[in-house]
Amino acid sequence: GWELRKALRLFNKSNPSIMEWLSSDIIYAESFSLAKQLRELKDRAFYPPALMYHYLNMAKRNESRHLRGEQVRIKKYFYVLRPLLACQWIERYRTVPPMDFHELLEELVEEGPLLAEIHELLKRKMDGEEMDVENRLVYVHPFIDKELARFDELVKSYNQPKDNLMQELNELLQSTLDEVWA
After folding, report:
1. Is the dihedral of CA 102, 104, 109, 110 positive or negative?
2. Distance CA 133, CA 153 (A)
3. If both were cysteines, with which of 48, 83, 122, 124 could 59 make a disulfide (CB 3.0 to 4.6 Å apart)?
4. Is 59 exposed, middle or buried (0-12, 13-18, 19+ CB in 10 A)?
């Protein structure tokens, strides 16, 4: 959980953690109407450059830490592929990307050798081989290199203004406090 004022400020900035939380299919408990109201505002708070920048930096950081050698742990590929696919989702659909890797993969990667290579990685991960070391993959590595460079340029080109929802969020804060204290 978050302190409410801080969470609302982060929501206004299209914070990826909050956006993913609001998009999750898993809901453990919701005692009050705050989450529902935030979900209703989510599309207006969504700011593609902020999320794309977050996912791109996650992919770059993980690529530099885990994928530079001639041998790579299978699990580490997913640390780069998921954020890159999230960037593709944002670029294509201008919405918060789904958390489910399979959904991203099936929606965004066309049939062919790249998809087959990723499916083989998934199979090996499911078979408990995720910590095994693999030679650099023939199709995945060029895809990663190309997409990192492409998104690095794309994120620089975004110049759309960001909606400021702070007045509405201040009112939401007050109504939430009234609801909780009632």
Report:
1. positive
2. 31
3. 83
4. buried
CA atoms within 13 A on the CB side of 170: 4
- Encode pLDDT of 124-174 as tens digits: 999 998 888 888 999 999 999 999 999 999 998 887 777 889 999 999 999
Are 80 and 67 spatial neighbours (Cβ–Cβ below 8 Å)?
yes
Query: Quick check: 179 and 26 in contact, CB under 8 A?
Result: no
C-alpha span between 24 and 16 (Å, rounded)? 12
Nearest to 58 by CA among 90, 11, 103, 93: 90
Strand (E) or helix (H) holding 133: strand 133-135
The stretch 43-53 carries a mean pLDDT of: 93
pLDDT category of residue 1 using cuts at 50, 70 and 90: low
